[in-house]
Automatic annotation (TrEMBL):
InterPro entries from the UniProt entry: GlmS/AgaS_SIS, GlmS/FrlB_SIS, SIS_dom, SIS_dom_sf
EC number from the UniProt entry: 2.6.1.16
GO biological process: carbohydrate derivative metabolic process
Organism: Amycolatopsis umgeniensis
Domain SIS: 34-176, 199-337
Enzyme class, spelled out: transferase
Protein name, per record: Glucosamine--fructose-6-phosphate aminotransferase (Isomerizing)
Length: 347
């Protein structure tokens, strides 16, 4: 029996993403059926429930719902229902629960509670036979296939695309901006190799990393921070570019690495002041995204240009590769990080 190499699963699953994304685009009619059911019951506002990487996908969906649908949207705290017994009136509310496994007890319970309280409940999961799917009235299967590595990679990007296609279809869209994402994802991975290796060589001994982004890209900053923490055990923190200037910038110095996610669109203009500020404090800035060439940085990794709304699906790809490379360079195995399980069950 061949011995598994460290990081083998994570590397393979990162590489599978272009094909998975292309497959989701081909299945968008299934997602459109769920969107049609939502359109038949127009919500007053939307709520999202999630944990971990799925929580970052939910934040991405929050931006989509507020910008594309013009609806107020919030991220719920499941414990208000599971621990404190809150039972709000959720009539005419769209309640979307995002979970790769569909098995966390708190997410199942809060979905069941929301449904009893009158919400239209939708599960977005990679496990269509899960208890979460049974708890929700409607369900979107992201179809990423079995993910063996503990760190979510292909399930994360697949969740982002599924959420985009769902929300775009609710507004009557046909997913045009996502049509070539499989091809663009392959371009992004193919072109990132040199920059990723330079980043790994440059930051393999760093202890403190800040990740930052604005708008849609803030979700990528959060997910990037989580990947660096769980695979390389780095002290990684994520901040919105706006929040970074409101206090945390005081902790930035020459020993700080800053990973800035900067894709073309409204967000990149808002990041200029942020990166100038951390640069003046001596931070070493790595810019990742389709606008990486347009911001002050010591190192840049470009991403294939796309519509701003779908950029996070692409910009996370080289960040995943950086997390993989740093983990291996620091002697770790990102397929089995210490103290972590694939499915985390909380209440």
């Amino acid at each position: 029996m061949t011995e598994q190499r460290p990081g083998e699963h994570m590397a393979a699953e990162i590489s599978q993403q272009p094909a998975i994304l292309a497959g989701i685009v081909e299945r968008q009619a299934e997602i459109a059926e769920v969107a049609e059911a939502i359109s038949q019951r127009p919500p007053r506002f939307a709520l999202l429930a999630a944990r971990g990487s799925s929580d970052h996908a939910a934040l991405y969906a929050k931006y989509l719902i507020e910008v594309l649908l013009g609806l107020p949207c919030g991220l719920v705290s499941p414990s208000t229902a599971t621990l404190y017994g809150a039972r709000p009136d959720l009539r005419d509310v769209l309640f979307i629960t995002v979970s790769q496994s569909g098995g966390s007890p708190d997410l199942i319970e809060v979905t069941e509670t929301a449904r009893r309280q009158g919400a239209l409940t939708v599960s977005v999961t990679n496990t269509p036979e899960s208890p979460l799917r049974a708890a929700a009235e409607l369900g979107v299967d992201i179809g990423a296939g079995l993910e063996k590595a503990v760190a979510a990679t292909k399930t994360y990007s697949a969740t982002l695309l599924s959420l985009y296609l769902l929300i775009d279809a609710v507004r009557g869209g046909k997913g045009e901006d996502a049509a070539k994402l499989g091809e663009l994802a392959q371009q992004t991975l193919d072109s990132a190799d040199e920059g990723v290796q330079r980043a790994v060589d440059r930051y393999r001994f760093v202890d403190r990393v800040l990740t930052t982004g604005r708008g849609y890209s803030y979700a990528s900053a959060l997910e990037g921070s989580l990947k660096l923490a769980e695979t390389s055990y780095l002290a990684a923190r994520a901040y919105s570019g706006a929040d970074l200037l409101h206090g945390p910038v005081a902790a930035v110095d020459g020993e700080t690495a800053v990973l800035a996610v900067t894709s073309q669109g409204h967000g990149v203009g808002a990041m200029q002041e942020v990166l100038e500020a951390v640069g003046k404090r001596g931070a070493d800035v790595l810019a990742v995204g389709s606008a990486s060439a347009d911001v002050p940085a010591a190192l840049r990794i470009g991403v294939a240009p796309s519509a701003e709304e779908v950029a996070p699906i692409l910009e996370i790809l080289p960040i995943q590769r950086i997390a993989l490379g740093l983990s291996l360079a620091r002697g770790g195995d990102p397929d089995s990080p210490r103290g972590l399980l694939k499915v985390t069950k909380t209440r």
